[in-house]
Each structure stands twice: as structure tokens, then as C-alpha cells.
Amino acid sequence: MPAMTRMYMAAVPDFSAGAMENWGLLTYREANILYRSDDSTSMQQQRIATVISHEIAHQWFGDLVTCEWWDVAWLNEGFARYYEYYATALVETNWDFEDQFVVAQLQSVMQMDSLRSTHPMTHPVYTQAESSAIFDSITYNKGAVVLRMMEHYLTTETFKTALRAYIKDRAFKTTRPEDLFSALNRYDPNARSYMEPWTVQPGYPLVTVTSHDTGFTVTQKRFLVNEPDHNEQTAWPLPITFATKASEFSITRPAFYTGMTFEIPMQGASDVEYFILNNQQVGYYRVNYDAILWGKISKALHSEGFGGIHVLNRAQIVDDLFNLARGDVVPYGTALEILEYLKEETEYAPWLAAVNGLTTLSRRIHADDEKLFAAHILDIFSKAYDIVKFQAPTATERRIFTYMRQNVLQWACNYGHEECSKAAVAEFHRYHQNPSVKVHPDLRQVVYCEGIRKGSMEEFEFLWNQYLTTNMATEQLLILQGLGCASSSELITIMLDAITSPHVRSQDKSNAFTYVINNLYTLPHVSRYLQQNHAIWAASHGSYANVASAFNNVLARLKSDSERDVISAFIESNKNILGQAAYDSIKTGLEDYETNKQFTLRNRDEIHEFLDNKINGGAATILANVSMIVGLLMLLLTR
């Protein structure tokens, strides 16, 4: 086997892919390879390190051994995504990649994989469009998640040994999943039967745990977030671990159970402090509990040290509660009561899970409840803000604490935290007056955003000039994020004009637009802009499909029937210009708007009652009363 003696890496200014694993010559977007400590954030540094690891991993998984066809692209991309975390972790041992992987990869792919429109990891590909579409989070994230699940089952050493055999067997050849399964089966005869169903079946299970005196009954059913009452009978081999006390969370090697229902016997089951399934979220499934078990988990989370519940299981509980409420499995009032524990949370992974859940919830909060919701946000982030403080990272703090600060400051400032806003605006003004002394990269996102949001044309032009004169792609992205926070109609229009101009690279236009519309106050302005400038938008972005995508991204965040009606009237009167495909796409976006609206109306009373009780009515005593939480949870039994 010839050895590769040198690896070249090249930065490419305009590059549609993030990076490409050419044999011996890796190519990257500038933002994914060029790092400067005075201009790149800690997260951008990590992004560069992990993308390099991803592309190097492809030299084995993709180049030396190549998936036979795009229907099994996960054999390339799943391994590369897996090693971008776990290979980088061998070099950067203090970056807590395990904590990051669970939320950023496992929990994020669960969103797409809970929809009827998902697909299995191994999925037929016949056309060029289908081969492009297969490079999605199922192929990347879910591929990596299933590999992690198997590593914990086989043990790390056995997994490595099996992969070495697989690479030797298939070197300079193509590969199919059967080749991987065959290699794993040499070291464990059950490996294929446990792994294969996760690759050929779409979606994942919701596992429900019911307690009784002598143990726990476990049932599985596919989790479809919009179809809680479906009758599908898909079953997966379930990797089961559980904990009833702090010391048991370290047990991550699962036993696999098959069947729709099974028992976990345990003497004195009713006396345990809590029963939590899926230690460190190694298994790819959600967990729901009966009222008694949710009550015990809630009591533990609200106690000192969170009852010893592992940080990744706290992140799991946070993510599951937001999504089980969304899927009409757990009442919103119950979920939000338990999640009040976040007021004491100090770790990155649960907070990232919370930020993801709150982002989705914020888009579905009834417009009349937004002030209550803002008060709720400021309350649960209050202690976290006091812990992270508005300051640059210290030399000794953990890397993920730096990441947590960025999230906390962003949410605090966005929702009007006075101290946060004052500090950010003051730092922006200092930078404006003395541009030679830059803002610390890890504070730029919040400083640029708040400085522009609270500023005028003068501040906007200053930052836009910085954008035009910097040659660092990472800094350009941070500036685009800041400019996206423009709050006046005039500045929003100027920003949208800038996105259509050649000044913003084609590869950055989509991100720049997202930065604008994530500030919900921009949506009416953006909608009008697209109606008036659709031809310019189509020309600068490549097609009317991009116009449709822009409208649909607005509709996904919109809470105004009158604005919806204006968009609807616009597409009817411009059907011929838009073309059938773009017209049909926006019609689907309008239908999704209606679905989202019905979701908001259906859950409004429960969410409003929780927020109103908390903000206006003796919240402390209510929240301390765990028996009330258990009472609320009894609603589970009647649903």
C-alpha cells in the first residue's frame, strides 16, 4: 500500500462546499482553514480544527475506502463527522467534545428525523438532485451518532480493532454497509443485527418508562413530532442503560433489548431516588416517563447538585422535554415547570439544549404573550449571566464555559437585559472611537449586534466599512451577524441591498439573510423588500428558487396574519414571474404558516397560564412545590 508522504491544504476564497477531501490536497473555504487569534472566536478556532480533522478522516473513510454509491454516503460522511469530534479530542483534550457531540450532533438530527419527510441512512439515489440531497444531517449526524452507539456497545478498543480490519479489507475498493457489518461481526456476532435496523429504518423511537413495585415497563414507538397518535409498528433494537444514583451514569455500555415492550426488573423499584434511562445519551432515542418518575426527576433537578444527574443526561432531559411538549406527549405547563431548574444550571450542554428548545418555542409564542416570555427568559438566564459575566474569557476557563458565555450574553442582550445591553453598547462605542484596539473575538457577536441594534446610520456605516476592509473571512462573518441586527426600516433595507451586492460572497449570502430574519422585528420589512426586489434577489442568488426559500424562511418565523395575506396576494399576482416551482414552494410555506399558527393557538392557554403564574403570581412558592409538579404530570395519564 503506497504511503502518502505529504498532505497539502489550500484555502479557496469562493468555494461552495465547506471543504473537500481530495486525496492529498484538501481544499477549504477561507473561514474553515485560516485562523488568527486576534480575529477568530474560540468557536471559529474549533470549527477550523474539526473541519481539518473531518477532511483528514476522509483520507481513509471516503478516499482509501469509498462508498459504492451515494445511497450509502454515510459510510464516508458518518465516519468523517464522528472523527471530526473524536480525533480532534485526542489533540485538544480540554474542549469537552463528548458534551458538545451529544447536543450538536445527536439532538440536532433528532429534529429532522422526527418528521414524516425524513429518510433512512441507507436510502436509494437515482438522480443528480437526489445525490446532492443525500448530503444532509441524516447522512452526517445520524451516521456519526449510530457509530458512537456501536462504539459504546463494542467498547472503544474492539471498535478500533474492527475498523482497522474493515479498512484493510476494503482498501482501494468500494464499500457497502454489509462490508462494515461483516467486519464488526467478526468481533461481536450480534453487531449487525443491532446496528443495521438503525441504518435502514427512518426515524427513531420514543421510549416510555412506567414504574411499578418490582421494576419498570419499557415500551417503544416511533417518535413523529406532528403525529403523536400514529399506529406505526416500527421497532428498533434498543441499547439500554439506566441510573438510579450518581455513580451509575458512568455505565455506558448498553444491553440491547428487542421487542415493542419489555421489563427491567428491580427490587425496591418504588424506593429509588430516580430512574433515568440512556446514560450520557449514548442511545439514539427520546425518553418519556410516567408521572411518578417525572416527579422524582424534577425533585432531583431542583435539589443541590441536581441529584448527581450527569450533565449529558440533564441536556437529554432538557431536549426531550421541549420536544415531548412540542409533540403533544407532555403538557407544556409540566415541561416548563421542570425546566425552571435551569435557573441553577451552570454547564454548557444543558444550556445549549435549552437555547435550541427556546429558539423553537420563541417562534411559536403567541404575539400577545411575548412580554411575559421575555420576562421568563431574563429570569431563567439571570444567574447564568451573573456567573459568566460580560467579560472576555480568562486564560484558565474551560473552553465550553466560553461557549456558554456567548449563548447567555446573546440571549440576555436580545431580551433586554439592561446590564448586558449597556456593557455591549459601551464596548461598541469604545471600538468606534478607537478601531485600532479591537473587541475581543469572543465578545464581538454580542457587541456588534447590540451596537448596531441600538445605533444609527453612523454605527452601521462604521461596521460596514470594517467589513469591506478586513481580509479575514471569520471576521467578515461576525460583522455580517452584527449588521443583521439593524432595527430601523432604512438600515434593514441597506443590509438587504448589501446581501444582493457582490460585496457579500455567494457562499455567505444565505447566512447573512438568516442573521437578519432571526431578529423577528425585521420580518415585515424583509417581506416588503422581497416583494419589491424579487428580480434583483433572484439574479443575485441564482434563481427564483432562492426567492421562494427567502419567503419561506420569513413565513416560518412570522406571527402576523395580515403580513401572511400580503405574501399570499403577492405570489398570486406574480405567479408567472415566480415560475411554477417557486410558486408551489411558497404555497407550501403558507400552509406551514397555518400549521404553526394552529400549534400556537392549541398550546397558547397552557403556556400563557404558566408564564402568567410565574411572572405575575407568587412564582417562588409554586415552583418550589414539587407535589404540584407531580399533580400537573398526572395530566400525562389522561392524555
UniProtKB/TrEMBL annotation:
Binding-site residues, Zn(2+): H54, H58, E77
GO biological process terms on file: peptide catabolic process; proteolysis
Gene Ontology cellular-component annotations: extracellular space; plasma membrane; side of membrane
Coiled coil: none
Subcellular location: Cell membrane
Catalytic activity from the UniProt record: Release of an N-terminal amino acid, Xaa-|-Yaa- from a peptide, amide or arylamide. Xaa is preferably Ala, but may be most amino acids including Pro (slow action). When a terminal hydrophobic residue is followed by a prolyl residue, the two may be released as an intact Xaa-Pro dipeptide
Domain of life: Eukaryota
Residue span, ERAP1-like C-terminal domain: 275-591
Alphabetized UniProt keyword annotations: Aminopeptidase, Cell membrane, Disulfide bond, Glycoprotein, GPI-anchor, Hydrolase, Lipoprotein, Membrane, Metal-binding, Metalloprotease, Protease, Signal, Zinc
Its membrane topology: Lipid-anchor; GPI-anchor
Active-site feature positions: E55
EC nos: 3.4.11.2
InterPro entries in the cross-refs: ERAP1-like_C_dom, M1_APN-typ, Peptidase_M1, Peptidase_M1_aminopeptidases, Peptidase_M1_dom, Peptidase_M4/M1_CTD_sf
Domain Peptidase M1 membrane alanine aminopeptidase: 5-198
CDD domains for this protein: M1_APN-Q_like
Family: Belongs to the peptidase M1 family.
Protein name: Aminopeptidase N
